[in-house]
Write a structure and sequence with these properties.
alpha+beta
Length: 85
């Protein structure tokens, strides 16, 4: 069985910054900042984002969210490279 970093490296096509960071207008507010990232994978069904990034800390947000430090976090989405954007 492959290790998780090896499975991710086998599946990862690229990563795209989206949202306010990509637009260049991201600011840390009193509530914090989430950096939106879309992982483009060969097959998104094989990657468990909880195993890669940890537990989803904001289950009400339709992305996988984790805190990095202080009030800065990341919101992840996994998409297959077969999907059309």
């Amino acid at each position: 069985m492959k290790s998780f970093p090896q499975m991710l490296s086998d599946q990862l096509v690229g990563a795209l910054l989206t949202g306010s960071v990509a637009r260049g207008d991201a600011r840390i507010s009193p509530w914090g900042l989430y950096i939106d990232v879309t992982l483009v994978l060969k097959d998104d069904g094989e990657i468990d984002l909880e195993k890669v990034f940890g537990k989803n800390e904001e289950p009400d947000i339709p992305k996988h969210c984790v805190n990095l430090f202080d009030k800065v976090g990341m919101a992840h989405t996994a998409a297959s490279s077969r999907e059309e954007f």
